[in-house]
Amino acid sequence: MKSEISKTDQISPDQSVICILGKDEIPESLRLSKTEKEYALKRITAKEEYIIINSYYKHTYLVRIKEDLNVHKTREELRKTAFNLRKLIKSNNHPELVITSAKAYKGAIEDFTEGLILSFYSFDKYKTREENGDKKKYPSKLILQGDIDDSDIKWLIDLSDAVYLARDLINEPVNHLNATVLSHEIKKIGQAAGFTVEVLNKGKIEALKMGGLIAVNKGSVDPPVFCVLEWHPEKCINKKPLVLAGKGIVYDTGGLNIKTGDHMDNMKADMAGAATVAGVLYTVAKSGIPVHTIGLIPATDNRPGGNAYAQGDIITMHNKMTVEVGNTDAEGRLILADAISYASNYSPELIIDIATLTGSAAMTFGNQAIAVMGNADKKYFELLEECGYEVHERIAQLPFWEEYGELIKSDIADIKNVGGREAGVITAGKFLENFTKFPLIHMDIAGTGSLKKDDYYRLKDGPGSGLRLLSTFLKKFAANHTKFN
Ligand code: BES
Ligand code: ZN
Ligand code: ZN
Question: Which residues pair with 455 in a beta bridge?
Fold first, then answer.
């Protein structure tokens, strides 16, 4: 369960408090004794990251802002400090905790709270014994005090709820979450947030001739699904929708080109793109962002089974193009290609796809950047880049030159699903470009979407990569719409 977030005007004397300090001074409102103050000031002058004062009936945590000329870095340091404090705060078992600030920048409370909430997450539903889990060991209530707009609190709540939902989906193993279960979960998320979800079943997918999704699903005993999520508020700023497509491979064994060594590790997270899309739709719908947004989620597992698709197969895709299967482990682009092709039905202003697509992206950027490329106007990339710095989900843009497209030519079909080892992250994007004439941005989260260890509040396994980024992108897209049209 997530901590509840609310707002207050007053701090009562017995409440434990976290105070973010913009200056090396201690505000009177914290009601510290003279000796406590002296102790704290000494620590502050020593530039300690945080100071804890354990009074008889409460704790006071003082958090120094690390000034930096770069505002983004200052904000990120505060989120990271929240992560560093999480264990201590949990161990003190506060039923509620006030978060306030003194002479800090506007937004500091929200930034710290965001870092803290995202750090408190744990995937503990399968822990049956209380002592094994850290169940309930965090404040059930976080109470914010200070100059905070109600709309900012609402955004923080909606966004962090979405990250929790996405993480739960990513962390759920495939024996509990196959494609059909995923579609049911997405339906629930739609109901909670107020967007519609239509689930196309296997029959419909076959009728639509989604050859990529059908091929990848052939080795599976479970049927595929294709989810269509739609948020269409009455008043919206865009005539043509934005389409988000998320890779929903609920487990990637590689198929007949099976993954060897430990390459199958955490492949339950190969639907992180799908979880992100569902989470973004949740945030924009819950927050009432006036942007007509469609989410497309093709989902299946990728397994070697009796009738599994094979290397050398030629398949006909939803857009009628033929694809030579050079490797059954390059399955993500096959299911996404059908989704991107299906997006044409909406004449979208822009298509953004997000996927744990290539090991090459992970090798290039590690967990520090989302690989981004495409043919969309640069104003979209600029906004995405700016949002990336703001929420610290940074993007790194790669070239998208047509020469890269030549690497995936096929001798016997229109195109091949692999291009060889060179520029693997780019050829995957070029492959997808073939399936639409509408502007495309492709985001590869293979490096950021599933982590072996915590990267601060971007917690290990499924951190929910790209969710805060794309939600913020849509919010700013709405706010800047005059500039965009
Ligand atoms: N799901 C993987 C990509 C991946 C790798 C995600 C590591 C997260 C961590 C994808 O389906 C895949 O297997 N890609 C292959 C493509 C290759 C066969 C062209 C890869 O990157 O090795
Ligand atoms: Zn694969
Ligand atoms: Zn995959």
Answer: 458
Collapsed DSSP state (helix, strand, coil) of residue 295: strand
Query: Cα separation of 199 and 294, whole Å?
Result: 13
CB 328 within 8 A of CB 220: no
209 is catalytic: no
Query: Does residue 64 have an active-site annotation?
Result: no
Tens digit of pLDDT for each residue in 234-257? Answer: 999 999 999 999 999 999 999 999
Q: What is the DSSP string of 406-464?
A: GGG--SSSSEES---STTHHHHHHHHHHTT-SS-EEEEE-TTTSSBSS-BTTB-SB---
Closest C-alpha to ligand 1, atom 14: 358
Name the DSSP class of 107.
Answer: T
Out of 333, 416, 430, 468, pick the active-site residue.
333
Residue 129 has pLDDT above 90, yes or no: no
Query: How many degrees, rounded to 5, is the angle at CA 453 between CA 452 and CA 456?
Result: 140
Cβ of 416: how many Cβ atoms within 10 Å?
22
Report helix, strand or coil for 322: strand
Sequence-distant (6+) residues with CB within 8 A of 280 are 162, 244, 293, 295, 467, 470, 471, 474
How far apart are alpha carbons 188 and 191 in whole angstroms? Answer: 5
First to last CA, the chain: 42
To test the pocket of ligand 1, the residue of 270, 357, 365, 451 to mutate (highest count of ligand atoms within 8 Å of its CB) is 357
- Predicted model pTM: 0.97
